[in-house]
Amino acid sequence: MRKKKNEDEQGFISDLFSTAPSLSCDYHIEFNDDREVIAEGCMGIMSCSEEQIKLNMGKRALLITGCSLVISGMFGRTVCIRGRIISAEFI
Amino acid sequence: MNLFSYINGYCEFLASGNFPERFLNLAARADAGLWDIHRISGGISAKITARRYRKLRPLAKKCGIRLRIKKKYGLPFRLLPYRKRAGMPLGFIFFCGIIWLLSQFYWIVETPQVSPALQGRLDEAIYAAGIRPGVLRSQIDASMIADELQLELRELSWAGISTNGSYISVDVREMERLRQEVTSGEPCNIVAARDGVIISVKASEGQSEVTVGQAVAKGDLLINGVIELGSGDITMVHSHGEVIASTFYNFSSEISYDLHRTERTGRMVTIRRLMLLGIEIPLYFGNNPDGNFEREYEEWQLTVGETEFPLQTRTEKWYELRTVNRIIDPHEAEAIARAEINEQMNTLDGLEIISVTESLRHTDSGVQLDVTVTVKEDIAVKELILFE
User: Fold this and answer.
1) Touching check for B264 and chain A: CB below 8 Å?
2) How close does chain A come to B26, measured CA to CA in Å?
3) Which residue of B167, B216, B303, B384 pairs with B180 in a disulfide if CB–CB is 3.0 to 4.6 A?
């Protein structure tokens, strides 16, 4: 009985922490309207063209589709893409 | 492009090859700081600050990418053609030095306008205190000079000096006599403005204190504004009235038989000067004329809007004078004396002249004419009754 009570308490505590939002993330992506996207935590550029830009975000790849796409800035692991963005997919 | 990029200089380059993305990733890891990256046929185009471009070469070699500079922007590239011209930076430094040096002086001095009797002394005092165009700013202690002006010129009630860059302004206030102006309704007396003998008194308000034929001195009470009533009470009124008296004016003129007079010969010399930054530059050849000359001058100062600049031109006209010595006879001396007396008597315009008494004396050296004029005038003047 006592052992079961302890197990229930531990399960409650672990559930409590598992429902809390994760404070550490591998990347952060921010959209400003459909004109600009800033991706932090980018591991590299996989492909680059005016219609599509594919970014290596570590676990996943991010495909930005649009027109007149330009990498307006690339500093360390932060990439800023400007242009007319039609869609963003995680591949 | 922003100001920082322009000052440091940046270039746009083309990276052509098979895998430009790899080149971009290596550049990002090397903190190259690329921007404005876009795809072109055969490669990519990007921008980078001029100093970091060299970092890209080993990375390009590693990726098999060929780099080519498309265009250079910024101040370093603009100044590059002038690198062998030492005169330009030297000239710029010299220019900044001159501006700094000139800003250490006061170039524009504004002096106040006061009464004619005080103006000359005030201008001299300001000049003696060191305030003039071209004076070093560190030599001027505004508060001390203001105190000195007040101490030196007793006619001033206040003096102040304000500075703004290379502009210095002197401002003063003259002392004014407190005038006790009598407004209608205020209790006042009527007193004598001059010595005289009373001819008539008309007191419309107040009590007359003088009679016809009485001699009065300046300041004597003529019409009293303090009236004692029959009941013993005292009331104060605004005195009003007219007091006509005969008064005396004395005029005198002494003319010597040996008459000295200066007159222009007709010869004139024009001299022009340029005053620039406090320095006087003569615009003529030769020296100032020698001899007895009378000088008139005109000044013109460069002014743009309301701002005066330290550039003036002065045109001086020198008229030659000669002294004429002449011995005149007594008749002519007497005529000159009478003419002077008549000019002095112009101050009596508007007054009724009762009599004129003259005394003419001929001495060995000249003629003396004394004239006493008796006039009839209203000597009533209002004086406020002051309460303690």
Assistant:
1) no
2) 9
3) B384
Orientation of helix B53-63 relative to helix B20-29, angle to 10°: 130
How is residue B80 written in tokens?
A: 């590059």
Instruction: Please tell me the distance from the alpha carbon of residue B340 to that of residue B253, in angstroms, as a whole number.
Output: 7
- Going by C-alpha positions, the residue among B26, B7, B67, B61 that lies closest to residue B43 is B67
A51 reaches B (C-beta below 8 A): no
Closest CA to B29 of A76, A1, A35: A76
In angstroms, the separation between the Cα of residue B18 and the nearest Cα of chain A is 12
Across the interface, whether the CB atoms of A75 and B39 are under 8 A apart is answered no
**Token couple for B81:** 């053609």
Q: What is the DSSP string of B81-147?
A: GGTT-THHHHHHHHHHHHHHHHTTEE-EEE-----HHHHHHHHHHHHHTT-STTEEGGG--HHHHHH
Distance between CA B373 and CA B251 in Å, rounded? 8
Stretch B281-290: mean pLDDT, rounded?
Answer: 81
Partnered with residue B357 across adjacent β-strands are B372
What is the distance in angstroms between the Cα of A65 and the nearest Cα belonging to chain B? 14
Does the CB of B35 have a partner CB in chain A at under 8 Å?
yes
The verdict on a CB contact (< 8 Å) between A45 and B21 is yes
- Please list every residue in chain A whose beta carbon sits closer than 8 Å to the beta carbon of residue B33: 74-75
pLDDT at A20: 46
**Under 8 Å between Cβ of A67 and A84:** yes
Q: Which residues of B touch A75 (CB under 8 A)?
A: 28, 31, 33
Confidence of residue B82 (pLDDT cuts 50, 70, 90): confident
pLDDT digits (tens, 9 = 90+) for B301-325: 888 887 777 888 889 899 998 888 8
ipTM score of complex: 0.70
pLDDT at A11 over 60: no
- Number of separate helices (H) and strands (E) present in chain B: 8, 24
Shortest distance between the Cα of A46 and any Cα of chain B, in A, equals 6
Instruction: Measure the CA–CA gap between B310 and A49, rounded to whole angstroms.
Output: 65
DSSP, collapsed to helix, strand or coil, labels residue A1 as: coil
Q: Six-digit token pair at B196?
A: 């005289």
What is the C-alpha to C-alpha distance for residues B273 and B56, in angstroms, rounded to an integer?
67
Q: Kindly report, residue by residue over A29-76, the tens digit of the pLDDT.
A: 999 999 999 999 999 999 999 999 999 998 889 999 999 999 999 888
List of chain B residues whose C-beta atoms are within 8 Å of the C-beta of residue A69: 38
Mutation target for A interface from B39, B44, B49: give the one with most A CBs within 10 A.
Answer: B39
CA distances from B194 to B109, B244, B351 (A): 46, 11, 14
